[in-house]
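Aim 2 progress update. The chain analyzed this quarter is reproduced below.
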Amino acid sequence: MDTLLAALPIVVVLVLMIGLKWSAIWAGVTAAVVAVVIALTTFGFGTDEGFGRVQGVTGVVVSAAWTALTVMLIIGPALGIHHLQQKTGATSAIEAGLARITPDPRVAALLIAWFFTLLIEGAAGFGTPVALSAPFLVAAGFKPVTAVVAAMAGNVAAVPFGAVGTPTLAQAAIVDYDPVDLSWAVSPYMVVTGVILALTVARLVGTLIPTAGPPWRWMAVAYVAFFAPYLLIARFVGPELPSLVGSILGAGVFIALVRAVVMRRARARVLLTGPEEAAERDVERAADAAERSEPHHMGMMAATAPYAILVVLVLLTRLVPPIKDASQSWDVTWSLFDGAFGDGIQPLYHPGPLLLVAFLGGALWQRATRSEIGGAFSVATRQVVPVFAALVAMVTVAYTMSESGMTTQLAVAAAGAGAAWPLLSPFVGALGTFMTGSATSSNILFTDFQDLTAGEAGLEQLPLIGAQNAGAAIGNMICPHNIIAAAATVGLAGREGELLKGTLPVALVTLVLTGGMALLLA
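Predicted structure tokens:
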């Protein structure tokens, strides 16, 4: 009975958002009330932990508000970059630049929905990829729901090694395994589930030109170009660089192959139609590209400046030891009730302030006017304010379940499956991310649990720890925190259920596939 009650808040969220199409804020408030009542009445929250019931509820709500604020630090500047790019004409300039690489907008979109999201996940993580890429895809002509689902599916493969390996390094700090072994443990799962993710991205990208259909062949090229270096680095180097280097090298190979095919087709066109007609078409394409790069005719370097600045800042603060130490030297912390509740942030290391610097640096590089900068900042601020309430509600659900033991109750009940446990192990990882909003937090919560459960059941431990990491990564697609944040970036606040309806089937298929692999490997 306790397990059923522990699962009730999650059921409430899914039914209200998907079934009844409630907004995230009202679904979250309802689920939060349900979670608090169950925590107080069934799980004794606040009576066994050394603080009272009122203090417990207060601590959870304050913790949720703090977490929501740290998410806002990412969403706000990311939205600012999006609106700045549109106001200065940088988005149009990038589209024109992509058109020069390939005349097929579907293939150009793969660079954003696949390689760009993988790159930003590998560098920054913490929701930054979707916040940056989904608005860009909308500006390129995709429907908002399609853009978000494509971006969320596109970045999952990079999550175990996101933010320069943070989720896997968190596992290494908890269990006594070499980081290289842990990175190799999760890699097979991501390579196999990556097929489903790549097919999803290709299908969604194909909606840009419905008559042409999905670019299956180019998606296959993109898949191999990313995962080949990804696997090698995970096997022989460790968890810090597979996603980051895989996306950079993969994008380079992909662009080179696309350009080679475009040039070959151009030469064939000259032979078939004659040089005069071919030249005429080239002039038309150049004129179209110039028109799309209005109003400032800026080059690709200036147009991509905010993204380039962000990547450089992230790499410097993650990979250069003196800069990393300096960026982590300033902590802002708080605590309540003798330390029962508390949290902190490293402002110079968190992606939010780095995004703000990228916004300002991009504005200077693009020579944006004061009205353009102010307009972008104003629109972004108005968009994030209502999102804050929805995030507080949903995070309150997560923290109430975690602090009261409801989340652990669900995991322990799942472990009772015995020999069938490997099938369920990735679902525990996804549960952790669903409740905390972070694959890293899920790994911190459940890696030791997965290790001990595998040992007790006489199973191989590393495959199940890898399944935990993979499940935590997949959970990013269905986590309410991420859904709310993604909805805010494309103007879908209040319609989060549509996004969850789009990502849930993909997540379930990949989780079942991961569980099947775990059963074979363990």
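The two ends are 30 Å apart (CA to CA). The chain has one domain: 2-314+384-521. These observations will guide the mutagenesis experiments scheduled for the next reporting period.
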